[in-house]
């Protein structure tokens, strides 16, 4: 990083030239595993030249049980690049179930982080009327913004909490009183176009103990994107994606800050929608990718969706990646033609349709054979590919298998028993293509306190899902 600049990188293309990742942080979850231990933040060595390569080199346990750590963010990121007084030295770690927010000092000793501060749930409840914090983004103003799934009683409420970037005290709501969306989940902002777009998952009390796909029939109501005015914090528009857009989860604008478009992965029916600003200045969305459901027997329903649970875009805005957590594959699409993504890579890692499992595929519109089980270094992959993180240069894709502890327990009980895995995919960035790195494996089944569920991967210097450029 150049001297005399703030944290992060001047542009996404500058970030692609950043140093190779040497360590990563991942939250590790014990809720719903039967092990009465607190969740922790793991530091993992991913430097092939290191003697501790592929090992957890530090564990920072939280002071409480059953938090369900989930996604993390930063106190400052590339949106503060112009401010030399800022440092990227605190990791913001919201707890999806307990509604605590941990602020972790990763600056003093990046390889052995420590807790700097805990924001207690009562602050979120009383000051904001919100609970179940999910996505954390730093803002150019120096504040931190966290989206929430619900209110303190477990009903859906898609509002946003602001934290002071220095004291980490709760400042209050970002949205105006009475203007929260009915449901919340993820968000991304693009200041050049004065816009923020947020997504929705569901009411916390309906999600906390598992997933009932039978209830997700024709009248699924969580199928909208919400468009906000970035300056006035007013909600401008709700885009109904229809049945095919049910459960829109991760939202990603293109990284180029001048772009007026991006993509959202919709879990329930395995679709990706492109959203964009229209000529008249409002926003619209169109379906650009659909993963067809497979007709199956030996499963809870007669049809199995891919269940797209994570998507990301390479820093040069050339490739889009997503994971089908149930089918068990990761796909790479060339998005040079933004409206017509072209699949150029695919790799299967576990999933629910492995050839030696209880599920038989009766009909597959894509005519793919049932994949064999995947074994890496003698360890079978239980669960399916879920959270993704791409190296800055776009050549390595890290993947973990845990989605959310209660859903893990329901769909992949063997993963809960054996622990989740972190794997690495080699990416062909010239013509496309994905291949498993057979020499890389982090086995979270071998942790000192027993098998654990590892979730989202974060690099100390920032990455393509935590950095927003102004």
- Report the sheet-strand fraction: 35-45%
Number of strands: 34
Number of helices: 5
Q: Main β-sheet, in a few words? A: 5 strands, antiparallel
CATH architecture: 7 Propeller
Give the N-terminus to C-terminus distance in angstroms.
18 Å
Shape: globular
CATH superfamily: YVTN repeat-like/Quinoprotein amine dehydrogenase
Low-confidence stretches: none
- By CATH, the topology is Methylamine Dehydrogenase, Chain H
Keywords: Acetylation, Cytoplasm, Membrane, Nucleus, Oxidoreductase, Protein transport, Selenium, Transport
GO molecular function, one term: selenium binding
Pathway: Organosulfur degradation
EC number: 1.8.3.4
Feature tags:
4-stranded antiparallel beta sheet, 470 residues, mainly beta, globular, 5-stranded antiparallel beta sheet, Methylamine Dehydrogenase, Chain H
Structural summary, described in words:
The structure is a single chain. With 470 residues, the protein is mainly β. The chain has one domain: Methylamine Dehydrogenase, Chain H (7 Propeller). Helix content is 6%, strand content 36%. The protein is built from five helices and 34 strands. The protein has helices at 12-15, 121-128, 204-207, 405-411, 413-418, and strands spanning 23-29, 40-45, 56-61, 73-74, 90-94, 101-105, 114-119, 131-138, 144-150, 160-163, 170-173, 187-190, 195-198, 224-229, 235-240, 248-253, 261-266, 271-277, 283-290, 294-297, 303-304, 308-313, 319-324, 329-334, 342-348, 360-363, 375-376, 379-380, 388-390, 396-400, 421-427, 434-436, 442-443, 453-454. The strands form nine sheets. Strands 29, 30, 31, 32 and 33 form a five-stranded antiparallel beta sheet that branches. A hairpin with a 5-residue loop joins strand 22 and strand 23. The longest helix is centred in the first third of the chain and has 8 residues, at 121-128. The two termini are 18 Å apart. The model has no long low-confidence stretch (mean pLDDT 95). It catalyses: methanethiol + O2 + H2O = hydrogen sulfide + formaldehyde + H2O2 + H(+). It is found in: Nucleus; Cytoplasm, Cytosol; Membrane. It is a peripheral membrane protein. GO terms for molecular function: methanethiol oxidase activity; selenium binding. It comes from Mastacembelus armatus (zig-zag eel).
